[in-house]
Every structure is written in structure tokens, then in C-alpha cells.
Amino acid sequence: TVTTSANVTAEATSANGAAVDYDAASATDIVDGAFAAGDITYSAASGSTFAIGETVVTVSATDDANNTTQETFTVTVSDNTGPVITTPNDATAEATAANGATVDYGAATASDAVDGAIAAGSITYDIATNTVFAITTTTVTVTAVDATGNQSQDTFTVTVSDGTGPTVTTSANVTAEATSANGAAVDYDAA
What we know:
The protein has 191 residues and is mostly beta strands. 0% of the residues lie in helices and 43% in strands.
């Protein structure tokens, strides 16, 4: 009788799959008794790298009379994790009009344990760069999708402020002739 490990699931750590450890099997025989661990063989060793998908591991034990018993269990490696996103730094800008300012915030990048670098076309923003941002702090959400369809999101902020005082245009300098000991009444253009 061969008793195998339970079925095992693991998350892929690279395009090659994942190194997966499983519990050792045991075997007993009515005549020979319990088998030593070295007398039990596996079609794929514990700790091996298993490819993405399902792999059937066959466990075999052969008694002293050359009777062989085999049992199987399944190792399933999946890619269920979305990419890791590196967002642009939080952006700040000075308002250039009453409705805010156009802000170019730069591009995010993303990488995935299985797919590697994510193409720019698979990275989207809920508010595009070079958009007019209102005078406030706005959160921009970045979404990246890997080849399997797993997605991740991260955010950064764009802050537009009005820190510039108004521009004042004054009258030109005025020169006047005194009309009394107190000076002169002078008119000038309004600012």
C-alpha cells in the first residue's frame, strides 16, 4: 500500500513555474512491512521546479518479491498574481488658469513574475497624462494586466495649487507741478 502526499497547489514564481515541496509518501507491505524512504521513488522529486499547469507525480514502491504498487497525486502551478506596478512620483503643478493646469506626470512601469516586463500598452491610467487637472489633489489609478489576464492597481496623486499672487499693472509714473505749498492734486490711471 502506498500513501502519497495530498494534491499540492502553488503560485508560479517565474515563467518556468515554481519549486514545489510535497510531503514524503509512505509504503507498507503485508509481508515486508514498512518501506524505508529510500525504497520509494517519485517521477518528480520534492523541491523540483514544476511547470505552470498540472503535473501528475507517480509514486512507486516495489517489495522484495518484485511486486510494484503505484499511486499518484497532482501538483498544480498557477499564475494568479498580477504585475507589480511602479507608479510615477506624486506630481505637483502651479495652476495656469482658473480650471487648473495641464500636467505631464510620466509613465508607470510594471513587471510580472511570469511575464517579466509588462508592455506599455497593457498599462492604463484612469486619467491620462497631459490632461487639465483641477486646483485640488487628484488620485490617478494605474492598472496593469499580464498575459494571463491578472491585473493589479496602484495610485499616485497630482496636486495643482494656486500659490501665485495676482499680477498688478499700475499706472505709469506721473509728474505734476505743485499748485500750492501743499503740493498738487494729481490724477492717475487706475490699476
